[in-house]
Amino acid sequence: MLSVIKIGGNIIDSPSVLSQFLQIFSRIEGAKILVHGGGKLATHLAQKLEIPVQMHDGRRITDAETLKIITMVYAGLINKNIVAELQSLGLQAFGLCGADLNLILATKRPLKNGIDYGFVGDVQTVNGKALFDFLSQNISPVIAPISHDGNGNLLNTNADTIASVIATSLAKLMPTNLIYCFEKKGVLSDPQDDNSVILEIDEAKYALLKQNGVVSAGMLPKLDNAFEALRQGLEQVVICQADALENFGKPNFVGTSIRLSNG
Amino acid sequence: MLSVIKIGGNIIDSPSVLSQFLQIFSRIEGAKILVHGGGKLATHLAQKLEIPVQMHDGRRITDAETLKIITMVYAGLINKNIVAELQSLGLQAFGLCGADLNLILATKRPLKNGIDYGFVGDVQTVNGKALFDFLSQNISPVIAPISHDGNGNLLNTNADTIASVIATSLAKLMPTNLIYCFEKKGVLSDPQDDNSVILEIDEAKYALLKQNGVVSAGMLPKLDNAFEALRQGLEQVVICQADALENFGKPNFVGTSIRLSNG
Fold this sequence. Notes:
Two copies of one chain form a homodimer. Helices cover 36% and strands 22% of the residues of chain A.
């Protein structure tokens, strides 16, 4: 079984939380891939360098200078420090971005309503075979959320999307779980109650949850994407907190497991 | 035949010169590895971030903040842009630093005469086997001059040294040439005359050149290191300009070929 695990800013932004997570990650049995986002480091660096953050409708516009920051922070600073730390834990890890081994080929996002989002990539193809070869040798890839366009340009790409396309690509070659490490313990039935985790969601239950308005609006696109990935052959998509991973697969695991059918 | 090619600031600092070099590199026949230095980009970024450059006896001291800069610029910005450009030229490239795949394990340099050079690594072991596996699949590694200590720390390491230890490690597995791309056309017999390239140097000739004071003081450590690498099994060490690489192996090639004996 392959676990593709995605972590974001809530883990990366704290060295001690990251260290704790990497220890858990290194102990996960079976093949594993880590996809990391960027967190606040890139924003801090952009501020120090006085590169203005341009937003449109809540989305960051990646101009040439911002792309440089992202490449330095994601593929350099964060990626290589994670790899060095995993090596110290005895895990044979190595870091890549989407340009390496032609891992993630993308196209620059076309103008949308006249807005140029800059160097942002929409994924076209994934070289799952290259990752499979590493996994077969007990090597754990650590992936920075950057793709390339095949014409020499790097492109900023959403880390959740990168995790999803990598997992669905590998799912064609081996049974694969996709695990999103989240701030909350999972999908909550009551947003005010952190312990109201819905442990299992299948398509029928999801239809009900939507109908009853139980799932929050922010969670809907995440769940829609999860079901889309499941239809492409994933075993399950899991949403949980990073420290819950320690118990993944055990009866005391707390988190939301999403499958097409929990029958 | 494997070519391990090292490029430095004179190539990296100019996007057009770098592009021209990468085109030549992509056309080199046989297995190839590119080792790149950092150039002025790291210095510029440190200046912008107002991180003081600390020097001692002409050597930079790598404090924690400087190490971050180096990791971002070398392993991120430079490394990934080179890989993306090589991919656009049809070369299956991928970038790594010494932490990836435990490629270059080093120890933090001990205090020297009471001076702490900071996060600087002296190479202990090289995972040549990992690189050999890539080369066997027609994949070209692109290596940033950063090592790690096995305890989770990245270490700044001289790019000439990285190129040399990688070449000597691979030389145990396949015939290997080490090529330094240099500002000058090669080792000059007259430092004032750029065309006075000494085409071949073997141990006997080197002894004579030193005796006659022909080789400049700055060149001596480079040549000493070259002969040390040759004694560890390299075919030849070559010092030439980047654009001369186009003719490497042909009669019109201009550059200095260093062998133990040119018999």
